[in-house]
């Protein structure tokens, strides 16, 4: 068991840093306390296993908190032998007026951050709506292009059918004409053959 005596410097007072340290220490089953040091720092005394203390020090080195303006600029850490004098980890409170002021500061900070996040959410929502409108416009254009292609294709089929119909009609007329010509030619050949045969027979009679 070891004891870590830590001085946290930076934006660590009146921003909820002690509450955050307490929650982390309890999750790691450390004992000790955290308290404000005038004018700006925070003092932390934590006892536990070396591995747990190493994780604790890493987690309380908060450079940028997602909700509060906590910003730890430096941690002065010293290790000592554990005394096992603490039953649990706690926040040592100061004068009630100072504590009340800090609570109001934290509440105001959280309220401001909530409003800020709400404004960002509105901006993000507006940007998403703008992107959605752009996507809808693109979809409309794609739909229009596809519709025009469909109409052009159908028109092409109609034109092709019309032209094919005309060609078909011409071909049918040509075939009919050829069949008529062939019929007339056959009749002419038949008449010519009959005439030749009749001429040969008349010569035989003479």
Task: Offer a concise description of the structure.
The chain is of the alpha+beta class and about 210 residues long. It has helices spanning about 15-25, 50-60, 95-205; strands at about 1-10, 30-35, 40-50, 70-80, 90. Strand 2 and strand 3 form a beta hairpin.
Report on this structure.
It is a single chain. By secondary structure, the chain is α+β, with helices and mostly antiparallel strands. It has a domain at 2-92: Alpha-Beta Plaits. It has three helices and five strands; from the N terminus they run βαββαββα. A five-stranded mixed sheet has the order 4-1-3-2-5. A hairpin with a 3-residue loop joins β2 (31-37) and β3. It is rod-shaped, with a radius of gyration of 50 Å. The mean pLDDT is 79.
Features:
five-stranded mixed β-sheet, 64% helix, 206 residues, 3 helices, 19% strand, Alpha-Beta Plaits, single chain, alpha+beta
